[in-house]
Design goal:
By secondary structure, the protein is mainly beta. The chain has a single domain, classed as Methylamine Dehydrogenase, Chain H (7 Propeller), CATH 2.130.10.10. Helix content is about 5%, strand content about 40%. It has 2 helices and 33 strands. It has helices spanning about 10-20, 155-160, and strands spanning about 40, 55-65, 70-75, 75-85, 90-95, 100-110, 125, 130-135, 140-145, 150-155, 175, 180, 190-195, 200, 215-220, 225-230, 235-240, 245-250, 260-265, 270-275, 280-285, 290-300, 310-315, 315-320, 330-335, 340, 360-365, 365-370, 375-380, 390-395, 405-410, 410-415, 420-425.
C-alpha cells in the first residue's frame, strides 16, 4: 500500500527498483489475450537467456481438450477455457500458477463436435470476475475466486450472432469497468458493464457484418479512444465512449479473419490475414468532418501475411510468423520492407527455422516462439537487424501448436492439442 503522500506511480517505481536490486523477476499478471496492454509484450525482466538441452524446467502440466485456447493469469491463478468431450461440457478452469492444482471448475452441458479443434478463446480476468466466451458464442461472467456464475449472455439469441465457421475465436477486451465483444448480428460491437452484464452501448451494424475470429484492439487516434476490429471485408474504428462507428476501410479477408488490427502509432494501422489476403498499412486521420482511412501500402500474400497471430510491434518494427513464407519468423519495418526472416536450409532440419502457425510472445528483449508442427520452443533475440537464436528445446509433442503463450512471474504457459505446460523461464 502506498505511503501517505506517495503517488501510486512513485510507489510502483520504488517497488520495481527494490526487486531489480535483488536480481529477481519483476512479476506481472497476464489477465487477457495478448497481456494487460493487448500488445503481446511482457514487462518482466530477469528471464533466462539460455537453457539446458532439455529446456526450461517443467513446473506442471495438465491435459486439455483439442484446440488452441491459451491461458490468462492473475493473482497467482491461471484461467483456461476447456471442454470435456466425454461429458459434453464446456469448462472454465482455474489452476494454481505455482503447481497447476485445480482450484475450481465451472461447467455446463453443450454438444460441440471437433472442427479442427474445439477451444479457441482466452478468458479475460477483471478485478472480481473472469469472462469466458465459449465456442458457440455464449458469454459468461464468473466469480474469479470461486467460479460461481454471476451473469451470462447468449449472443446468438440476444444479438443474432452467427457462430463462426470454426467456432468463436474472439477474445473479450477489458477496458476500465467495461468488457467488450464484437458480436456481429444486430450490433457490430457491444460494451457490457463488467459487474452486472448490463449493456452500456452497442454499435450499429449497417452492413450486417458477422462475428470474425479477430479480437478488438484499443487505440487512441486523433485524440479519440477507439477499438479497432477486422471483419471479413473491412477494418473499422469504433468509439470507446459510445460505440459510434468512426471510420472503416475495405480489406478482404480470405476464409477467416483471425489476426487483429495492429496500431503502430501516428495514426497508422496495420492489417494482415491468411491465405491469399496479404497485408495493408492504413493511415487514419481526423478532420473537421470526421475520420478517414487510406491505404499507405499493400503487401501481397507472397510478400507477407499472417494467418493466425497478430504481429508484435517492437522498436518501430513488426514481428510475426508469416504463413506464405513457410512459417518463417519475420521482421518488417513500418514501410513493409522485410528486414530479416528466420533462415531455411533445405534438407537440414537443424538449420531450418520454420514455425508454421506457431504462437509467440515477447519478454525481456527475447521472443519465445513455438514451432507449430514439431512443438519445439525457440528463444530468439528481439533484434531488428538479424535472426539470432539463443536457445531451443523440444517441449510439446507438436501438431497444430497454435495457441497463444502467456507469461507471468517468470513462468511461461504454452499448449499443444492435448496438453498445457508451465515452464520456469525466470531465474
Amino acid at each position: 500500500m502506498p505511503v501517505k503522500g506517495m503517488t501510486l506511480m512513485t510507489c510502483r517505481l520504488v517497488i520495481s527498483f527494490f526487486f531489480l536490486s535483488l536480481s529477481t523477476v519483476w512479476g506481472a499478471d497476464w489477465p487477457q489475450f495478448r497481456g494487460p496492454d493487448r500488445n503481446n509484450i511482457s514487462t518482466e525482466t530477469g528471464l533466462l537467456r539460455t537453457w539446458p538441452a532439455s529446456g526450461p524446467k517443467v513446473l506442471w502440466d495438465t491435459p486439455v481438450a483439442q484446440g488452441y485456447a491459451g491461458a490468462a493469469v492473475k493473482n497467482g491463478l491461471v484461467y483456461i477455457n476447456d471442454y470435456d468431450e466425454k461429458k459434453k461440457e464446456h469448462a472454465v478452469r482455474c489452476l494454481s500458477l505455482a503447481d497447476g492444482r485445480e482450484v475450481w471448475r465451472w461447467t455446463y452441458k453443450v454438444n460441440i463436435r471437433p472442427n479442427h479443434g474445439i477451444t479457441r478463446t482466452v478468458p479475460s480476468v477483471g478485478d472480481a470476475l473472469v469472462f469466458s466466451l465459449d465456442p458457440k458464442c455464449r458469454f459468461h461472467a464468473l466469480d474469479a475466486k470461486t467460479g460461481e456464475l454471476v451473469w451470462q449472455k447468449n449472443l446468438v439469441q440476444e444479438y443474432k450472432t452467427t457462430i463462426p465457421q470454426w467456432y468463436a475465436g474472439q477474445n473479450p477486451l477489458l477496458d476500465g469497468d467495461k468488457v467488450i465483444v464484437a458480436t456481429g448480428g444486430n450490433a457490430l460491437v457491444v460494451a457490457f458493464d463488467q459487474a452486472t452484464g448490463k449493456e452500456i452501448w452497442k454499435s450499429d451494424n449497417p452492413d450486417n457484418d458477422l462475428m470474425s475470429h479477430a479480437s478488438l484492439m484499443p487505440a487512441t487516434i486523433g485524440g479519440v479512444e477507439q477499438y479497432l476490429y477486422l471483419t471479413m471485408n473491412k477494418v473499422v474504428g469504433v468509439s470507446a465512449a459510445d460505440g459510434r462507428l468512426l471510420w472503416n476501410s475495405p480489406f478482404t479477408a480470405r476464409m477467416a479473419a483471425s489476426p487483429s488490427p495492429l496500431y503502430v502509432g501516428n495514426g497508422k494501422v496495420f492489417v494482415t490475414s491468411g491465405y491469399e489476403a496479404g497485408s495493408v498499412m492504413y493511415q487514419v486521420q481526423k478532420s473537421a468532418g470526421g475520420f478517414n482511412a487510406d491505404p499507405l501500402f499493400e503487401l501481397t500474400s507472397t510478400q507477407f501475411n499472417s494467418e493466425v497471430h497478430t504481429p508484435i510491434l517492437h522498436k518501430n518494427h513488426m514481428f510475426a510468423v508469416g504463413s506464405k513464407k513457410r512459417g518463417q519468423f519475420t521482421c518488417l519495418d513500418l514501410n513493409g520492407k522485410v528486414v530479416w526472416q528466420s533462415p531455411v536450409v533445405s534438407g537440414n532440419s537443424e538449420a531450418t527455422r520454420t514455425f508454421e502457425l506457431g504462437g509467440f510472445i515477447l519478454a525481456d528483449g527475447m521472443f519465445y516462439i513455438l514451432d507449430g508442427v514439431s512443438g519445439i520452443l525457440r528463444l530468439v533475440e528481439a533484434n531488428t537487424t538479424e535472426y539470432k537464436e539463443l536457445a531451443s528445446a523440444q517441449i510439446l509433442e507438436g501438431h497444430d501448436v497454435w495457441g497463444p503463450p502467456a507469461l507471468s512471474n517468470g513462468k511461461l504457459i504454452i499448449r499443444d492439442m492435448g496438453r498445457m505446460v508451465c515452464l520456469q523461464v525466470g531465474k
